[in-house]
Amino acid sequence: xxxxxxxxxxxxxxxxxxxxxxxxxxxxxxxxxxxxxxxxxxxxxxxxxxxxxxxxxxxxxxxxxxxxxxxxxxxxxxxxxxxxxxxxxxxxxxxxxxxxxxxxxxxxxxxxxxxxxxxxxxxxxxxxxxxxxxxxxxxxxxxxxxxxxxxxxxxxxxxxxxxxxxxxxxxxxxxxxxxxxxxxxxxxxxxxxxxxxxxxxxxxxxxxxxxxxxxxxxxxxxxxxxxxxxxxxxxxxxxxxxxxxxxxxxxxxxxxxxxxxxxxxxxxxxxxxxxxxxxxxxxxxxxxxxxxxxxxxxxxxxxxxxxxxxxxxxxxxxxxxxxxxxxxxxxxxxxxxxxxxxxxxxxxxxxxxxxxxxxxxxxxxxxxxxxxxxxxxxxxxxxxxxxxxxxxxxxxxxxxxxxxxxxxxxxxxxxxxxxxxxxxxxxxxxxxxxxxxxxxxxxxxxxxxxxxxxxxxxxxxxxxxxxxx
Length: 469
Ligand code: HEC
Ligand code: HEC
Fold this sequence. Notes:
By secondary structure, this protein is of the alpha+beta class.
């Protein structure tokens, strides 16, 4: 495995510093934005950020779905809620600024004037707060098209968490909702949250909850990109998560649980967990939005049958995906070095009736079904390969660093390589959360060398075929 540098504390500090600088710049930009908008208050058109939306009514219920139960969990504290409501009440001036901030700085898409997965709810103490719905992570844009069920490519949990934590530190609030909000901000803004770049989440945020007494980060990050969740009914048969670890309905509530929702509340809300599961079963992959060269797809399908089908299955078809030992696929194995003691903690912990785990003979990853694969870049479980063309390039020749800035926007989509366009990297080095650096721990782009020795003709046809899935 390549050496990474995550655990170097000096780099962490530098990152924090860079974060502060970013916040100052952001503040300056916001003030400029405000000044400009104030100049235009006479204008009746409200600026709407976000792309084309393709929201079917069945997706509406998912976009509004959350597991909040009145108490702890993914709660934005009342004082944040107050600011959101204030911004919303000023539709012309502050709302567009807030939307732009969420979209560009935190990577939360705003579609048709609506924030994805930030939902107003009533807390048990009567206060109005906001909660994160599943859609904040489990919906996102590709090539400018908003797709419910696609992983959010730009969400920056770490930056959002640090800002939230800073906010609750300077705006104390000892009401029950205030305390719940503070707990959430401390979890998401924790230094243990090792997501180093947008669009990835460190699963440690969840796994940590099983081991509450653990003080320090004594293991590598469990970094994953947020997966697309169509074909989920069959995926569940093989196992949840990129490594097939999870088994059981309770995992649908794992994120709010890790954020402070009680085990009792999950148990009490079994029906809503079932509702979540049923919603996850209903997603359909987005059709490729541009033209496909149909003359090549037949040959592409043949290349696929010979090189890819044994692991990735047949299309159309709905067979459960295969589990492949890491010894065979050889992709970054940091994710598989789970926190020591985690397995035992899952087996014997308070959620053992809700969340179970699968034990495989050897560690490995699930070879995902490939429907809608055009939209799921950057590729692999850790999002380390920017396009299909790069995935079909020998690992040593794949891009070492690439920009994930605005990754879901139309101008970042390359229809030939199928994935991210190459972009000049302006600011480099630690602290740049738009930069994917494959030299960092957990972010290696090694392995999955399948198809890399095909001829250029075969590769082009294969990519064309993959667009049809
Ligand atoms: C902070 C972002 C975030 C939020 C919010 C979130 N998830 Fe996830 N979810 C993830 C990530 C990241 C993974 C992939 C974990 C892995 O593979 O190890 C995931 C995986 C899953 C999976 C398994 C998917 C698979 O391919 O096996 C399910 C089911 C799931 N989430 C349900 C939910 C539900 C239901 C909610 C809302 C209550 C939710 N998630 C909220 C980030 C999030
Ligand atoms: C020996 C089994 C195997 C073969 C053969 C194979 N793959 Fe994979 N593939 C996997 C596994 C396992 C993963 C997940 C690896 C990871 O995420 O680290 C994967 C991941 C992928 C992904 C990324 C999925 C995502 O959501 O990011 C794509 C795209 C892909 N494979 C395409 C192909 C193509 C095209 C071929 C044929 C040229 C192929 N694979 C051949 C096992 C295989």
